[in-house]
Amino acid sequence: MPTEHSRHAPSSLLPNAQDALIIGAGPAGSACARVLAQAGLQVLLVDQHPPGRDKTCGDGLIPDAHQALARLGLLDEVMGRAQPVSHVGCIGPRGGRIDVPGSLAVLPRRELDALLLTAAQDAGARFEQARFETPLEANGRVIGARLKQGDQVLDVHARWVVLATGAVPKALTAAGMCERHTPSGVALRGYVKAPAMVGKITALEVVWDKAVRPGYGWIFPAPDGHFNIGVGVTDSHRDLGGGKGAKKDVNLRAIFDAFVAKYPPAAELMRVGELVGDLKGAPLRCTLTGAKWTRPGLIVTGEAAGSTYSFTGEGIGKAMETGMLAADAILAQGDDDSAARARYEAALTALKPKFDLYERANRVNAHPWLADLLIWRAKKSPRLLKRMSGVLNETSNPGNLVSLKGLSRLFFE
């Protein structure tokens, strides 16, 4: 088994002739690498950042993330480090609140991503810090990638290249896979150390209000007396066609300040706590749109493929799930490129309606009064509360909650 030093120290020469070269060591890339390596494939996993890099994220692990971690054999280890949470607290503009039960947890991405990367290495994958430059091609097929490691530019050949490079479109563009250069949404997050707030904020609190429209605010309790606080806007850019877009009139810092001013627990958290580091922003790619999923020899997975949900901005679980779907396709079809790509695309196509339903539910962010209506009715209807819990567990249709039919049921069921 490699030592911690050998795991993290870059080599001067990358190994060649891989079964799979995976670009990006976040949840999607590491999950894909672990499954492939466990099956005995020779896997090289590269990332331009060293292990332990920070990632702007809400850090919430909802049931789909628990299921993915269970398949990877990592759920117990993650939950041993994470802050367990039993409810999502939905808070409307008028101050109404409903606590929706679920299997939930919070673990900062710095820790989660490092754990996933170590698990991929323990399965036999090799990690190197290197930057993706461009794919290598022959006879219309991707056969590897040109990487930069320090001052060296190296060509690494592989039977499969998997792009798991997140929301920034640079790698997608270089690979000829980008269909939308602007993000679907944007988020701003900070960590606050506030031991005095432990026990006061115990749920994953999601807040809708006119002050943060067209987005939402959140506070998630993290381990060791820390809290993840942020705001997100999941429809932040206008689509101008041709893969280009323009940012709407969205000032994340102004929205964050408005959230803190409007929501008393956020104000108290910032008053009694200490901000750890700076507030950090990040783009989001949602709804399985914005990128081609495959081309001969190459698969796009995770947030690069748009694996983040609109409405909630949650993407950790689906990133891991799509990474494992990529691995499954490679393992099931062997050297049959067309069959492997068809299997992977069919798997994402099967997921797409679920993403579309979350996109439909995204209207709550633009019309916060819908949150008031749902909260008011859920307090009176155990059946509706069960359906809202089902949205977390992916057993209920989130779009139906805010459809015309769904809204009518709020008054007549």
List its traits:
single chain, 413 residues, alpha/beta, eight-stranded mixed sheet, 15 helices
Textual characterization of the structure:
This protein has 413 residues and is an alpha/beta fold. It contains 15 helices and 18 strands. The protein has helices at residues 4-8, 27-38, 63-72, 75-81, 109-122, 170-174, 252-262, 264-272, 316-333, 337-361, 363-366, 369-378, 382-393, 398-401, 404-412, and strands at residues 18-23, 43-47, 60-61, 83-91, 97-106, 126-129, 131-138, 141-149, 152-163, 185-193, 204-207, 216-221, 226-233, 237-241, 244-247, 274-284, 294-295, 298-300. Strands 1, 2, 6, 7, 8, 9, 17 and 18 form an eight-stranded mixed beta sheet that branches. An eight-stranded mixed beta sheet has the order 3-5-4-11-12-13-10-16. A two-stranded antiparallel ribbon has the order 14-15. Helix 2 packs parallel to helix 9 (316-333) and helix 7 (252-262) packs across helix 8 (264-272). The longest helix has 25 residues, at 337-361. The protein is globular, with a radius of gyration of 21 Å. The N and C termini lie far apart (59 Å).
